[in-house]
Specification:
- The structure holds two protein chains of two kinds.
- By secondary structure, chain A is mainly β.
- Helices cover 0% and strands 54% of the residues of chain A.
- Chain A has no helices and eleven strands.
- Chain A is globular.
- Chain B has strands spanning 5-7, 10-13, 19-24, 31-37, 44-50, 53-57, 64-68, 74-78, 87-94, 104-105, 109-113.
- Chain B is mainly beta.
- In chain B, the strands form two sheets. In chain B, strands 2, 4, 5, 6, 9, 10 and 11 form a seven-stranded mixed beta sheet that branches.
- The radius of gyration of chain B is 13 Å and the shape is globular.
- Classes of the chains: A mainly beta, B mainly beta.
- Chain A binds chain B through residues 4, 6, 8, 31-32, 34, 36, 41-46, 49, 51, 88, 90, 92, 94-105, and chain B through 4, 31, 33, 40-45, 48, 55-56, 58, 90, 92, 94, 96-108.
Chain lengths: 112, 114
Amino acid sequence: QKEVEQDPGPLSVPEGAIVSLNCTYSNSAFQYFMWYRQYSRKGPELLMYTYSSGNKEDGRFTAQVDKSSKYISLFIRDSQPSDSATYLCAMNRGGATNKLIFGTGTLLAVQP
Amino acid sequence: DAGVTQSPTHLIKTRGQHVTLRCSPISGHKSVSWYQQVLGQGPQFIFQYYEKEERGRGNFPDRFSARQFPNYSSELNVNALLLGDSALYLCASSFLPSDTGELFFGEGSRLTVL
């Protein structure tokens, strides 16, 4: 069993839709949870990170972490064609290490 | 400001050969990490270096090695290449080792092993 599970999609939505992306994980030691966006032929870029359980909002993006269920989500409001990319969840245990455990990524296509 | 730069961007090797990939971090960043991304998968951690010392190693065989130079640039070396080493190799830099995933990734070096 992988430590982090993520539905690979693809997910296709119309412009303006609310998008929900999710990951589950098995290791209760994870403390930091991130969402990265990766455009085709580019490196991942950090969208948001959350420490422990709770919600965090940044513009059209909201990240949620439920440690009791080992479940994290990213919501995108008013989705735009420019949001079309692969979204990767990632997490780590802390301890000042850059050892992130990534999900497989979900490919999102926002149709104009 | 320049982002993380990696070279070469693409390369083709045959089984058994070795490869050296290079990375220049963002100016002022002292930590460099390497990840392998196989097609259709998320990146997998290989190494982290900080102040020229190895700070972390992922579950990769000894054929994989890396080092960091005094100017904080880094090299990833892979010996005795296998077909399964075909992947996008990503370098990421940060000012310090970080818990919050604030890594800045380069565009990667795409390695094809024939």
